[in-house]
Amino acid sequence: MFYAYLLASRRNGTLYAGSTDDLRARVEQHKRKHFSGFTAKYGVDRLVWFETHPARDQAFIRERRIRQWRRLWKIQLIEARNPNWLDLYADLDRLMMEDEIRGLAEYAITTPPFPLIPPQIPLIRRKPGPRQELGERCGTKFRGAMRRPRPRNSFLPGSGLAPG
Fold first, then answer.
1. Closest CA to 46 of 82, 98, 95, 76
2. How confident is the model at residue 117 (pLDDT cuts 50, 70, 90)?
3. ∠ CA 98-67-19 to the nearest 5 degrees?
4. Residues 6+ apart with CB under 8 A from 92
5. Res 102 pLDDT > 80
6. What's the predicted TM-score (pTM) here?
7. Do the beta carbons of residue 123 and residue 117 sit within 8 Å?
8. pLDDT value for 100
9. Which of 90, 101, 98 is nearest to 24 (CA)?
10. Where are the domains of the chain?
11. Mapping DSSP to helix (H, G, I), strand (E, B) and coil, where does residue 136 land?
């Protein structure tokens, strides 16, 4: 089995997304700061969410998609299964078994890569400007400043329309 996972430094702290084939060993490497990188620098070592996948490519794609998400969506994903942001590393064997039994791998594959519009975020519409409102009231579309077109060559010498 392969895994996509999220680590955190603390509740609502720094987040890190990754994927691996041996989740227990990988989290242990993060905890021991085996690699001097992002997780070691920011103290990100608490396993707060993971997901099981039958193939390496699927876990890797899921990790990349989660990395592109907004922070709010990642927090919602964590709090759906782990509302107290507990470190899941201690119960990892039991949780991995439950994950496989429930068949969450199939669910993860069929879900969209990211929520299109999260239900908690209301849509904000821009208010129209005063000229747009005027155009809507008059039944016309606003096409810029309304002015009378100037006749061509009206100010050329000899046209008879030169200012005075």
1. 82
2. very low
3. 45
4. 23, 24, 27, 47
5. no
6. 0.61
7. yes
8. 72
9. 90
10. 2-110
11. helix
